[in-house]
Amino acid sequence: QAIEPNWRDGLGDSVEFETPLLDFDTGAINPTLGREFFSSKRQHDWFLKDRTAIEAFRAFLVRRAGRRVAFYSPTFRRDFELLSDLTSGSTSMLVKDNLDAGLVRGKTTHQHLEILLWSGVRLRFSIATSLSNGNGTMNLSVGTPFAASYTKDKIRRISYLPLSRLAEDEVEIRWHDRNVAEATTVHTEVAQ
Question: Which of 9, 81, 84, 172 is the most buried (most CB within 10 A)?
Fold first, then answer.
């Protein structure tokens, strides 16, 4: 069962660029960069409203083993705006062009997506291809066919689903009382 952060404030995003380290005596230490693209970090603020939510969050942290175990975590944003219904057996969807085809398609953290239905069901797919139609729309193909048909009004959000890690080994749980707490985690995208 997926747990989802809830926010008092907006979702905190930041980016990191890998740059060469410079030693003024010896020159550049790592002149070849390890990544072509920036690395995104997302701050998630969690409001844990009862003991069940607290235990689910603790179990989530245990499964992560600090920074050691990577996990797929959606961006929790509407990264794709669906323009037509999804058809059972199809692998293609028409979405508003978000420049995925031209600018960030090569970014290895943007190879998967999650479709969240208003019913709470999460559908996860690998992205096979994205092709700009040149008219503000884009055809996005996924690796496996849709098992059912879905109308646009049944879909709450389509988000990138990057592989991520916790940025820190330790997470502080701030207690309001014995049944209510808050916590903050930072997720760093991992290149695949």
Answer: 81
pLDDT (tens digit, 9 = 90+) per residue, 106-156?
556 678 899 999 999 999 999 888 888 889 898 989 999 999 999 999 999
List phi, psi (to 5°) of 16: -125, 135
* Residue 68 neighbours by CB distance under 10 Å: 9
Question: In degrees, to the nearest 5, what angle opens at C-alpha 14 toward C-alphas 72 and 68?
Answer: 40
Among residues 74, 129, 133, the alpha carbon closest in space to that of 106 is found at 129
CA distance 110 to 74: 10
Strands 137-142, 27-28: pairing is unpaired
* DSSP structure class, residue 62: H
Could you count the other beta carbons within 10 Å of the beta carbon of residue 46? Answer: 22
Q: Scanning the structure block, which residue is given the tokens 């970014």?
A: 107
pTM above 0.85, yes or no: no
